[in-house]
Amino acid sequence: MTEVGWKAEPDEHDYPAAADYLALLAPPEQVTSIVAALEAVPIAHKKAKDLLRASRLELLPPDNPHVKSDLTKIGKGKPLSQILVVQGDLSTGVPLQIADGYHRECASYHTDENTDIPVKIAPSTR
């Protein structure tokens, strides 16, 4: 079984990509606050299967072009960038938001659903 390698830190372009996605869900001041939190929080490790379940997103197929690209990187031993997420809220039923790294999450899941993924988890702001 191929092991997924991870970079020590997210790529710099991951934060603007997360902001672009979050701008679809929240006002600019909230997005700014969440991205600042993502940059500041320590790295945690979560299982691929748990991240996918908590996000309530569907697993993209391995032939999705972006997932396929990440699977190729994994096969060549190239490390992937970490995943940036916003914590969900169990009491209100709000799922975890994968702000950046959905395709990497799916590629990791296809490799091994028990993969420990380094993530930065920002708390949701109200």
Note down, in words, how this protein is organized.
The chain has 126 residues and is an alpha+beta fold. The protein has a single domain (14-122), classed as Conserved hypothetical protein from pyrococcus furiosus pfu- 392566-001, ParB domain, CATH 3.90.1530. The chain is built from five helices and four strands. It has helices spanning 14-22, 28-40, 48-55, 65-75, 102-111; strands spanning 43-47, 83-86, 97-100, 116-122. It has a four-stranded mixed sheet. It is globular, with a radius of gyration of 14 Å. It starts with 13 loop residues before the first helix and ends with a strand. The model has no long low-confidence stretch (mean pLDDT 96).
Question: How are the SSEs placed, and which strands pair?
Answer:
Blueprint: H1 14-22, H2 28-40, E1 43-47, H3 48-55, H4 65-75, E2 83-86, E3 97-100, H5 102-111, E4 116-122
Parallel strand pairs: 2-4
Antiparallel strand pairs: 1-4, 2-3
Helix pairs in contact: 1-2, 3-5, 4-5
Protein name: ParB/Sulfiredoxin domain-containing protein
